[in-house]
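FIELD: query
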Amino acid sequence: LHEKIVKRPSVRIKVIKPAPAAVAFVENYLCNFGEYFDDFVGVTKNNAKVQKIILRVEPNRLPYILSKPLHPSQRNHRAFEGIIELEVIPNRELYQLLLAFGPDVEVLKPAEIRRKMADFAKKMTNIYKPTNLCKKIAQQHRTFAPSNKKDKTNK
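FIELD: result
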């Protein structure tokens, strides 16, 4: 069903024109949008299955996440231990949401999502190594530096 639904970012809409009077309103019977977004974070629904995701939340962030749940499926059965559960389809927006909490949120299960979060963390660590910054600055300097060679036409 979701292959039939086209999603477009609202920032790309340039003009909205009213439909001609001859065009009749067509009721949506294809999808119940009250339920469509229930099992994933954000707007990107993929073909993956809903998974139970168990998170450990640092005590300093726990009150925030308890007062503003990450998703309506959030269960706080073991919140006193900093453990919360989500039941969602893993997608890009879920990873972005979890990464936004940095080291304050850790994926405990499932192993596949934990591994993917670890891969993101490794890539970020490599990006922010001081030696990489020096290399990037040197590379950019070489790329954008004016040539030391004199133009033969301007003597």
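FIELD: remark
Residues 99 and 121 are 9 Å apart (CA to CA).
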